[in-house]
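Fold this complex.
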Amino acid sequence: MSVLNVINPLFQAYIVYSAILTLKLIAVSSMTGYTRLTRRVFSNPEDVKNFRGVVKLDDPVVERTRRAHMNDLENIPPFWILGALYITTGPGLAWTTLLFRSFTVCRIIHTIVYILPVPQPSRAIAYGIPYIINWYMGIQVVSFYISAM
Amino acid sequence: MSVLNVINPLFQAYIVYSAILTLKLIAVSSMTGYTRLTRRVFSNPEDVKNFRGVVKLDDPVVERTRRAHMNDLENIPPFWILGALYITTGPGLAWTTLLFRSFTVCRIIHTIVYILPVPQPSRAIAYGIPYIINWYMGIQVVSFYISAM
Amino acid sequence: MSVLNVINPLFQAYIVYSAILTLKLIAVSSMTGYTRLTRRVFSNPEDVKNFRGVVKLDDPVVERTRRAHMNDLENIPPFWILGALYITTGPGLAWTTLLFRSFTVCRIIHTIVYILPVPQPSRAIAYGIPYIINWYMGIQVVSFYISAM
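Structure:
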């Protein structure tokens, strides 16, 4: 039977956490837009006119939000693919849900501590746990399928 | 039955629009390379030699193309995952096709108005509609699976 | 039957090469962190304190690693989606494995020649082959489903 089936509780867990992470990712993207509007700092000359702002590429608050967003783009898409591949290896439901939940909670904390900002090592921890989960899932996938070949 | 089945017309619509969006995304990536070659502006010293150009990180035309590409990278991958998860909730075919088609057409318009550029609010609209579609699909997915648990 | 089935050898090839590419992508992400630590160059004031470094946004070695990582983010996620969609069109196993393997090997070479760096056109070739494979798969997908409609 297909693992990527909506009746499979592993797949349901994957769907819910992936969707939450994606909504979080796109929420940070509007945060950049909101910061640009309130600080009147833009990247493009055509944006300046309507909002009486300036073109400035190094505003520290906008750049901080952009770095938080960029860090999401570097870490959340790998989760989408590795999470989906990982559940095809038939892991336990409780363990998988723990991995997915930890990943999601840490990435939400990562955004908060990056943007406020909260002193280190809070951001390093909130980055490190999901990063290790991605490696763990990737190695499990490769070793499972290579040993099955 | 598995929803992610090639006979399912919802999945076929997802496949076609995702593939078109991805081709558009990678087309913008060559546009950056093309702009670099014609303006002889590069990021790496080893690229300069062959093309008699200069290393310059703030050329306005190259940076504009790069921002258009970056904006695709922030918005199209969320569609890949949210679109795939959304069709597992069993939405209507006509409605889903409308969402996917609107997303795709707006993202193509977004690239054109960003690169020309066309005065605002054209780019804001071409950005906003797909952005709202992503949110809509994500919220539908989360609420569908959480209410089913 | 569902194509996205773990018993399908096409899907197994997709899984293995996607997972390897994703691990490579996230490995480059730690390389940036490692380069920052050894050169004591950071983006955020709160990172400087613990490691007695400086905030500097244009360190050439860090920026080179970041560009290699960025190039992965622009090319590997399109492979995840196009590779998955491509196998639904029922291509031959040997041919598909050749495409996936070439893509993966070239992207690994790309990172190495970018970071060392090795003189051009090595990087252009290691970039170009996977780029053409993405286009090929995307066009195959669109033409297959549009002719089936």
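DSSP finds five helices and two strands in chain A.
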